[in-house]
Amino acid sequence: MRVFAALPIPDDTRRGLTDFLSSLRRNHPDFRWVSPENLHITLAFLGELDTFGLSLVEAAVSALAADASPPAIQFLGLKTFPAKREPSVLAVEIGKGADELADLAADLESRLARAGAAAGYSFRAAPERRFTPHVTVARRGRSRLLLSPDDTDRIFSGEALLGRVCVFSSELRRRGAVYTELTGCVFTGTGDTLP
User: Fold this and answer.
1) How far apart are CA 5 and CA 56, in angstroms?
2) Catalytic residue, candidates 7, 13, 16, 40
3) pLDDT by residue (tens digit) across 84-123?
4) Which of 27, 57, 89, 192 is deepest in the core (most CB within 10 A)?
């Protein structure tokens, strides 16, 4: 199954973000919009895993949650990705807390590398590009992912305390991906992530 580790967006913040995006949804019906219940911040996309690989991921995520405290974040404006090609993703950027999220992602990758090496299991290599925390809100649909200056100048001023880290499966369907939470762990640590 296709697996990723992510931080779900809390319900109240998700509602605020959905309200913020409502006019964009009306103005750009050709975009493939992410359903509100699927909004999250990905820490690591792990690709296809077997049952053993999944158990290693679940253990690493559980240990991460036990060691780290819940990250506090603040959202910024809209951004399209990738920057060097025609954009295919519309996202809300993370301002405050972005460095903490990058540390969490690096910590998780390190834990997975150690667990994989100890068990003789090979995980998908982490991307070479710099980790940029964001919430994907739409993908390119039937038309190009173009926004007006009025759209890109909008800022979602929401804040959130991300209390959980989860392992999800991703099933690709015609109408979009369906995410299923496989494991959810509450952050209970009082310290920072490991180097």
Assistant:
1) 12
2) 40
3) 788 899 999 999 999 999 999 999 999 999 999 999 999 8
4) 57
